[in-house]
């Protein structure tokens, strides 16, 4: 997926989750890049709201990861267990 919103800016985590919901009908509960948690629906409201509003590269920068043009994201959807998550295809996001 090209992680660029309609206004040409990099997508936020909320934009990515909305895209997955619209495109595949998935309700994502956890979104990861490697070991970096981009979103976790079980977080308290304040951290969860902050996660949703951040751009993908902002979260990775905060985690000390180098700037990347392509991200391999993994995810867990509502109702999935750990084994199902391992079988889910990676989501490749291209950043502007």
Automatic annotation (TrEMBL):
Pfam families per UniProt: E1_UFD
Domain Ubiquitin-activating enzyme E1 C-terminal positions: 9-85
InterPro entries linked: Ub-activating_enz_E1_C (IPR018965), UBA_E1_C_sf (IPR038252)
Protein name: UBA7 enzyme
Organism: Hemiprocne comata
Gene: Uba7
